[in-house]
User: Which sequence fits this backbone?
């Protein structure tokens, strides 16, 4: 994996924090399902392409036959879609918990928490990086 600078880590953490401010848990059920489904289709499709066309991702291996690649792609897509939908429910639960505790600006609190957690995990990850 490539080495990431502290500046890149901070930028990614800031973007994570900004994305965490968006109240996606309050979106309509249709929007949440559409985002989850689109994420699943994208992830499943990318998996299928990566397995059937290793040259696209510069992998030096033989392509996996289409039926097996399709099965793995569907599995990955379903996993991603389910994870997204579950994440929306968790986001809403965290926001409601903060509201019940009368925390002012709960979305801002979630954004800051997301940014701090993102940066901390990146710092920990960099500590265990090995040279490629």
Assistant:
């Amino acid at each position: 994996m490539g080495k990431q600078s502290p500046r890149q880590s901070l930028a990614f953490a800031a973007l994570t924090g900004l994305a965490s401010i968006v109240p996606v848990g309050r979106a309509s059920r249709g929007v949440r399902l559409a985002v989850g489904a689109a994420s699943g289709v994208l992830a499943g499709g990318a998996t299928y392409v990566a397995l059937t066309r290793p040259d696209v991702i510069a992998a030096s291996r033989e392509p996996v036959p289409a039926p097996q690649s399709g099965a793995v792609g569907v599995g990955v897509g379903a996993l991603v879609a389910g994870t997204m939908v579950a994440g929306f429910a968790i986001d809403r639960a965290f926001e409601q918990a903060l509201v019940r505790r009368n925390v002012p600006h709960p979305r801002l609190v979630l954004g800051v928490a997301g940014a701090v957690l993102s940066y901390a995990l990146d710092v920990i990850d960099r500590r265990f990086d090995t040279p490629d």
The radius of gyration is 18 Å. Residues 66-100 form the longest helix (35 residues). The chain has two domains: 28-101, 104-131. Residues 28-101 form one domain.
